[in-house]
Design a protein that fits this description.
Elements lengths: L2 H4 L11 H12 L15 H11 L4 H14 L3 H6 L2 H8 L6 H17 L7 H5 L6 H12 L8 H10 L10 H8 L8 H14 L18 H5 L17 E10 L2 E6 L10 E2 L11 H5 L12 E2 L4 E4 L4 E10 L10 E5 L10 H10 L3
Parallel strand pairs: 1-6
Antiparallel strand pairs: 1-2, 2-3, 2-7, 4-6, 5-6
The protein binds iron/sulfur cluster.
Iron/sulfur cluster (SF4) binds next to helix 10 and helix 13.
């Protein structure tokens, strides 16, 4: 850590009215979001929770249609708690990071079973639920229950690190940013303060070309004064994972496709996939092909030109795709099943499998 990073910024008297300035800006410019309550009203904890889980690593634009589908089908947490995990995974398909969907369902079941269908109203109570970490607990507590706490998401991190020109890189800077963000809490409007900073980060203090002239904090923003706003927040260099390789087998039987379910635990747990090899760094094509499903009637596998590439959080993946078609009445190997190609949209395929199928079937 540099000596500059060690110096903790302190708010001055001049900065004491920052929360009020931010709230006044919010009252004029707040974003309209499907999960957000009208001005002056507390939000529905179910909608806040659902949106916060969906928004993890996903954009507001991508989440919107999924949020609407979920609340239409399951209008409250009790309804979601009574749904089957398969139905929830199917509805989630395409949003990525599938452990979130499994935790979402487990959380709804717990709220229904242990709390009579009512979310706990404290950070501590919320954190005891599946899939609710410190950030999500603080967001629900502030936005739905107006608890005096500041949830710090990526937008707020950016605003605060620029406002105080915090030199320490992420993720080490998180506790300091959290501490400084708390100085922006408005009295008795915790939820609005948090949402105001989120909106400020999303619409004004953007990663590139922040619109500082329109910002309610522009007269005392340290990074703006220095003119290097876009360089905050500082970030430690990224480690990219090692490339893994494997094979995927797209097998058709007339208008049907051979699929299986992934194990419940682990990456893409419980999702549907076409059969495939293990994914390893340095996996050789021959070794991957040797893991093809044993199917009567497959004389040879046809290798599709090119590869399917996908990037997971911790590693990039390349899959070689092999195709084959088998005669009618060919039995699916143990643990696999045939599904009509016409109904593939209803299956819980992760994005990587949608790419594989599109490549294999020339869709
Ligand atoms: S003045 Fe500019 S850099 Fe500073 S918080 Fe506002 S938008 Fe961000």
């Amino acid at each position: 850590m540099s000596s500059r990073a060690a110096a903790k910024p302190k708010p001055t008297d001049h900065q004491a009215d920052r929360p009020a300035r931010v709230l006044a800006w919010y009252d004029r410019h707040r974003r309209k979001l499907p999960w957000r309550a009208a001005a002056g009203e507390l939000a529905d904890p179910y909608r806040v929770w659902l949106s916060e889980i969906m928004l993890q690593q996903t954009t507001v634009r991508a989440v919107g249609p999924y949020f609407e589908k979920f609340v239409t089908r399951w209008p409250d947490v009790s309804a979601l708690g009574r749904a089957s995990l398969d139905d929830v995974l199917r509805m989630w398909a395409g949003l990525g990071y599938y452990s979130r969907a499994r935790n979402l369902h487990a959380c709804a079941v717990a709220v229904l079973r242990d709390h009579d269908g009512m979310f706990p109203d404290t950070e501590e109570g919320l954190r005891a639920l599946p899939g609710i970490g410190p950030y999500t607990a603080a967001a629900i507590a502030a936005i739905a229950f107006d608890r005096c706490t500041m949830p710090v998401d990526g937008n707020i991190e950016r605003v605060v690190s620029r406002l105080y020109a915090i030199e320490e890189p992420l993720p080490q800077a998180k506790p300091l940013i959290q501490q400084m963000a708390a100085t922006l809490l408005g009295p008795s409007r915790a939820g609005d303060s948090a949402q105001a900073l989120m909106d400020l980060g999303a619409t004004i203090c953007t990663p590139k070309k922040p619109a500082c002239a329109l910002c309610p904090l522009n007269d005392d923003c340290a990074a703006r004064r220095r003119g290097d706003q876009e360089t905050f927040p500082r970030k430690a260099p990224k480690k990219s994972g090692t490339l893994r390789r494997g094979a995927a087998f797209v097998v058709t039987r007339g208008g049907e496709l051979l699929v299986r379910s992934r194990p419940d635990k682990g990456l893409l747990g419980g999702m549907t996939e076409v059969p495939g090899s293990e994914w390893h760094a340095g996996q050789q094509d021959d070794a991957a092909l040797a893991q093809a499903p044993a199917l009567k009637g497959v004389a040879r596998w046809h290798r599709k030109a090119g590869v399917v590439s996908h990037v997971f959080t911790h590693f990039p993946l390349e899959l070689v795709v092999y195709t084959a078609s088998v005669p009618a009445r060919t039995r699916a190997p143990d643990g696999m099943r045939w599904v009509p190609v016409a109904t593939l949209d209803g299956e819980a395929f992760p994005n990587v499998m949608r790419k594989v199928i599109a490549h294999g079937l020339d869709l």
